[in-house]
Design a protein that fits this description.
Number of strands: 24
Strand order of the largest sheet: 2-13-17-15-14-18
Helix content: 40-55%
Shape: elongated
Number of helices: 8
Radius of gyration: 47 Å
Strand content: 25-35%
Distance between the termini: 58 Å
Largest sheet: 6 strands, antiparallel, barrel
Length: about 525
């Protein structure tokens, strides 16, 4: 009996101890879990489909005509319908002359193909055959440069020879002591006598140096180093001969100078001047050919180096951008072509057709009217903030207050009023939607809840909108990299009704995008 009582006393104590241990364990687990838990809530970036919608409330009304016009000015190219014709949604009714735009589009498509081919070449790298061709170009350029160097050396030598002959062979007969420090002209009162004698003295000094340079050309093999000096020397010789020619032409026949002698002087000086002018032209031409050959060799060498090195990542990226730019141009042209088409937004009957082939029409001038096959349509007002998203032809999902939310109807936007309607101080724009299928359950006056699908994207990155932050006039998101947080610039696209936003640039597959920071 005593033992039984003792056991009864011990059991409650044991239970209390077990409760304390369990509570302590739970507290310790919760504490350490809290200490180790991440302070960030994040999502893993993955590709998904996203749909942008504009939600409005409207009212069902009896259907009426839809008036259609071109979006831009132009000449009507063709008309496809007449009054009384039945048409279907999307059918082209009339089009502006698009021959010029089509030609531009064809040209743009050719450019896309060309840019893509260049991109493929860059990615594949250079073929051995191309490197061989580039090496051959280098070899040929070297040969051409050597030929040009030899030709330049010949023209430099010829320039010295002609100058030596012009000065010493053709004009020294007019001087006494022509090769000394004091050359004297043989005729009294010669035109610019002192200037001519000084020029002859200087040329004698130049000829000595000139001859040394001419000899050095053959030894050094680098005639290009002497070209500019030779050009200056030739110019000095030409000026000297011009002075002499003017002076000799002014001489008169007298007892000391016969006509035969004077004519011989004139002939020799004329020949000298011709030879020097020829030397100047030949040297300039040879110098230009040499410089061209140098440039050609440099270009060929650089081309060979580039081909051997292959394309860089930057070059590939730049070419990819060229492809994108070329494709975008096609889209722009195609958009211009589409603006020149009147298409029926609904199934119906043509009640008005004023478009005439060859006529020039202005933008937004109603030419064609269509009465819908449907009995009813929906009118709704879209806020200014959303109207830019809505366009004619957008599909919509509709529920009616008269039925449950499970009963869905389909509609299509067929008209958008260009003028605003002010409702409670807010600018709105009236849009008209028509039911795609007739349904006897639809009655006039019913309240319609409309979700207009304005854009759809497949397999894109989309993250919660609250994860995108406005910063420095741009958009950023925070990405968890291990235990570190880094901010990345992002480019956003469309938004859906679930609070997600499309990310065009800045987020990659598998990134941990922070959506919430827990308070400490």
């Amino acid at each position: 009996m005593k033992t039984h009582i003792t056991n009864m006393i011990k059991k409650p104590a044991l239970i209390v101890i077990l409760i304390i241990i369990a509570a302590s364990s739970y507290w310790a687990y919760a504490y350490f879990k809290g200490k180790n838990a991440s302070p960030y809530d994040y999502i893993i970036a993955e590709r998904r489909d996203i749909v942008q919608e504009v939600s409005v409330t409207g009212r069902v009304k009896p259907a009426k005509e839809v008036s259609l016009a071109f979006e831009k000015m132009g000449r009507i190219g063709w008309v496809n319908v007449k009054v009384g014709d039945n048409v279907f949604a999307g059918q082209a009714l009339a089009q502006l002359d698009a021959s010029e735009l089509i030609a531009q589009r064809n040209e743009a498509e050719t450019n896309v193909a060309y840019q893509k081919a260049k991109l493929e070449e860059l990615k594949k790298g250079v073929r051995p055959e191309e490197i061989k061709v580039a090496e051959t170009k280098v070899d040929n350029a070297k040969v051409s440069l050597q030929d040009a160097r030899i030709n330049l050396a010949d023209k430099l030598q010829d320039a010295y020879t002609k100058s030596d002959d012009a000065i010493r062979g053709k004009t020294d007969q007019l001087f006494s002591n022509p090769r000394t420090a004091n050359p004297q002209i043989n005729f009294m009162g010669f035109y610019k006598e002192n200037e001519v004698e000084w020029a002859r003295f200087n040329l004698e000094q130049s000829l000595a140096k000139w001859q040394a340079s001419a000899n050095a050309i053959n030894v050094s093999g680098n005639p290009e180093f002497y070209t500019e000096d030779f050009k200056k020397n030739l110019e000095a010789v030409r000026n000297y001969l011009d002075l002499l020619a003017f002076g000799v032409n002014a001489l008169m026949v007298d007892s000391t100078l016969s006509k035969t002698t004077l004519d011989a002087y004139k002939s020799d000086i004329s020949t000298a001047r011709t030879n020097i002018n020829t030397a100047i032209v030949n040297l300039s031409s040879a110098d230009e050919k040499f410089k061209t050959a140098q440039s050609s060799l440099m270009l060929a060498g650089n081309e060979l180096l580039l081909k051997k090195a292959g394309a860089t990542l930057e070059q590939i990226a730049a070419q990819e951008a060229q492809v994108g730019q070329a494709e975008a141009k096609i889209q722009v042209i195609q958009a211009q072509i589409e603006k020149g088409v009147i298409a029926s937004p609904i199934n119906g009957v043509i009640t008005k057709q004023d478009a005439k082939v060859g006529e020039i029409v202005s933008a937004n001038s109603a030419l064609v009217s269509v009465v819908s096959d449907a009995k009813y349509e929906i009118e709704a007002n879209v806020p200014e903030a959303d109207i830019a998203k809505v366009k004619i032809g957008d599909k919509a999902k509709v529920t009616l207050d008269a039925y449950s939310d499970d009963v869905l109807f389909e509609a299509i936007v067929v008209a958008i009023d260009p003028a605003e309607t002010i409702i409670e101080g807010v600018a709105t724009y009236k849009i008209t939607m028509q039911f795609i299928k007739e349904d006897d359950r639809v009655k006039p006056g019913m309240t319609a809840n409309v979700d207009i699908v304005t854009a759809e994207r497949q397999a894109v990155f989309a993250i919660p909108q609250r994860a995108v932050i406005d910063k420095n006039n741009g958009k950023t998101a925070r990405v968890l990299d291990g235990e570190n947080v880094k901010e990345v610039s992002v480019k956003i696209g469309i938004r859906d009704t679930e609070g997600n936003i499309e990310i065009l640039e800045g987020i990659n597959q598998g990134d941990k995008v922070i959506v919430f920071v827990k308070e400490e």
